Fold this protein.
Amino acid sequence: MKNEWNEYQGDSFCLNPSDYYYFQEMFASNGQAAQQDPEHEPDLLFETEGDTLHIYGSGTADFYDGENFPIEKSSVQSVIVHEGITGLGDYLFSDFTALRSIALPETLRVIGDFVFEGCASLQEIDLPSGLRSIGDFVFSGCSGLKTIRLPEQVTSLGDFVFENCDRLQCVTMGDGIDYLGYSVFEQCISLKQVTLPQHLRVISDRAFYGCRSLKKPEIPDTVTFVGDQAFFGMRQELKKVS
């Protein structure tokens, strides 16, 4: 990790998520950082290189501050999250409208709520094999996303995860998933192929609502609950796996 933590030079900044006031003070006056406690070194480094944002460090990358984001979101086309990061905090890349590619580390375990919401230019993403949890609205409004594979260790999908991903065509789910949240794929109008996990138990209300291109999804026998309007608007009737 770099040691020059007391200055902001226009292309990098640091943040300790457990002491948020450091981050607020760093950008309070003409880019000059406030004097920091020398015994409390920041855990994260965010660095820009052209249109690429790098995130280094350990633990959860989390610095959402409403509209006071420290860099211009629309200028970031690529993000590289380096090894050591275990979580992506809520809203971390929300409305990065120019974001086209992102590299995630194998150390990543948790993706919080709204992390990629509104990233309309994002077309693909490789989720690391050790990922365990995906929050609500994570890819909502990612209208460029076309295909995604969910790792085996993910056990549930939150609410509205892929809502309005209107170009999403193919989803492959690992067999560890046993719960699909409310409206998880609602209005994925281009979705043609989805592989449901063999140990799935719950398909919540409106899970596939408005997926008009989806044909004959196979529902495993392990499913004990299918919510209201879970498949409303689908072109063909369901097929049960025996």
Notes: The two ends are 54 Å apart (CA to CA).
